[in-house]
Amino acid sequence: MVTVNVRDNNVDQALRVLKKKLQREGVFREMKMRRDYEKPSEKRKREKAESVRRWRKMERKKRDRDGF
């Protein structure tokens, strides 16, 4: 569950925080994916691409941390 506190009646700030939290949780991506039907082959292709992207990002961070 996502909760956001409104401080000093600043609703705009609270909305920005809420959008960030929802994006981090992947709610917007989930809504976009559920909007249209995705064929199983397209789903496998997308998940494989996401996996490769995560792996490359992890390797890049590891390389930067180790100083290569």
Q: In terms of topology, how is this protein built?
A:
Elements: H1 11-25, H2 27-35, H3 40-66
Describe the structure.
- The chain has 68 residues and is mainly alpha-helical.
- It has helices at residues 11-25, 27-35, 40-66.
- The longest helix has 27 residues, at 40-66.
- One of its GO terms (biological process) is translation.
- Residues 34-68 are annotated as: Disordered.
**N-end to C-end Cα span:** 40 Å
State the shape: flat
Mean pLDDT: 93
Major sheet attributes: none
Number of strands: 0
Radius of gyration: 18 Å
Q: In which range does the helix fraction lie?
A: over 70%
The helix/strand order is: HHH
Number of DSSP helices? 3
Low-confidence sequence ranges: none
Strand content: under 5%
- What class would the helix/strand composition place it in? mainly alpha
Number of domains: 2
Keywords summarizing the entry:
ribosomal protein; structural constituent of ribosome; mainly alpha; Ribosomal_bS21_sf; 68 residues
Summarize the structure.
With 68 residues, the protein is mainly α.
